[in-house]
Amino acid sequence: MARGEGTAYIAHVVPGLEEFAERDLRTHLGDIEMERVLRRFDERTSLLLFRFRGASRALLTQRSLEDVFALAAASPGVPPDRKGLAAIRAAITGSPVLSSALTAASPLRVRKARRVTYRVIARVAGKYSYRRVDVQRAVERALGETFPTWRLVEDDAQFEFWVHLVGGDLIVGLRLSDITMRQRIGERVTLPASLKPTVAYAMVSLSRPVPEDVFLDPMCGSGTIVIERGEVGRYRLLLGGDVDPAAVDVTRRNIGPRFKPIEIRQWDARRLPLDAGSVSAVVCNLPFGKQIGTPGEIRALYPALLTEWRRVLDAAGRAVLLAGDRAAMAWAVGQGGWAMERRLPVMVRGFPATIYQLRPV
Ligand SMILES: C[S@@+](CC[C@H](N)C(=O)[O-])C[C@H]1O[C@@H](n2cnc3c(N)ncnc32)[C@H](O)[C@@H]1O
User: Fold this and answer.
1) Which of 135, 226, 337, 342 can pair with 122 through a Cys bridge, CB separation 3.0 to 4.6 Å?
2) Contacts of 293 by beta carbon, 8 Å cutoff, 6+ apart
């Protein structure tokens, strides 16, 4: 694809997964042109700005993305004083990409309504003499002027415009995805420590899945990781378990009749009822932070877990683990049996955590 060709898009990704998402998009979509990466727009979101020539619908099946937008307007250097609001309105009314955004969105978001409805969501980072709601109103007004027949609504709009303003940099997207993109399915039951499916997907991908996999999440919570593994491709067996019977129950409900063969069991991840060397990949979101009592308890738990998982893992196996306590993890890995291949810092629900790629030695 030549530079500047195709439609311009914005994707929301979890901070830390920007490069992973870029690679993943290239693998699945082929030719994309990455224009900018805006890291940590806020604690939970980074922005990827890229161009893609294929059908916008193809973007909605990308498991690494939280949300996808067609670029509707952009302007660098929005003044932080009152003049900023006029600049924002002008950026919308004079946007050269607004019509291509509508073209990208129309086949995806059409619902029968006599008049096109729209709403505006504004996210603002940085210091300005105006408020977030002023930014929202400025964009609402500019769109109202541009499309006089459109109707502004509070909810359930055909077109949702998301405004990102960071350090005077204005990026406006017309939302193509809906909540099902990041939550996967509307009816998934979550537990307080449930992982974002996009993070679970990244961890599963980093485990380099192959059809021969006997895949294990020994502390599966609501089953997010097991579900992502089941979705990405073939495997020999899926195994999941949790010490909490309520979590086992939730996982079974979230999985439903999908994914055979699969076993979801109640167990203690420090004493697994599995043979030595019987597993090819362990992917797990370890308890950390307030999920489990004191740092001392975490320090005792991690080495016990790693020793047991080393036992069940095949010599050529892979482990991908998410944990928040770096020192506890370094200490546990230092007890032996593992080589640290890579550490990937990510933000998980606004808190810093690390994805560890380990291999048995
Ligand atoms: C961070 S949560 C996992 C969340 C999961 N990835 C999800 O998306 O729902 C950690 C889980 O470890 C479980 N757990 C804690 N100690 C355990 C143990 N000794 N054996 C097995 N599971 C344990 C907890 O019950 C909790 O469900």
Assistant:
1) 135
2) none
The ligand 1 atom nearest the CA atom of 247: 27
Transcribe 206-232 into DSSP letters: HT---TT-EEEESS-TTSHHHHHHHHH
Ligand 1, residue 244: give the atom nearest the CA. Answer: 25
As a whole number of angstroms, the distance between CA 51 and CA 100 comes to 12
Instruction: Indicate if ligand 1 lies below 6 Å from the C-beta of 353.
Output: no
Give residue 163's identity as a one-letter amino acid code: V
pLDDT, residue 289, reads 66
Rounded Cα gap, residues 29 and 23, in angstroms: 10
The fold for domain 184-360 equals Rossmann fold (3.40.50)
Which residues are CB-contacts of 135 (< 8 A; sequence separation ≥ 6)?
A: 85, 88, 122, 124, 128, 163, 165
Report whether 310 contacts 282 (CB < 8 A). no
Give domain limits for the chain: 7-181, 184-360
CA-to-CA dists, residue 110 to 69, 72, 105, 122, 143, angstroms: 15, 17, 8, 22, 18
Q: Is 95 in the pocket of ligand 1 (CB under 6 A)?
A: no
Q: What is the pLDDT of residue 220?
A: 97
Q: Which run of H or E residues covers position 305?
A: helix 295-312
Q: Which CATH number fits domain 7-181: 1.10.10.10, 3.30.2130.30, 3.30.870.10, 3.30.479.10?
A: 3.30.2130.30
Spatial separation of the C-alpha atoms in residues 44 and 65, rounded to whole Å: 13
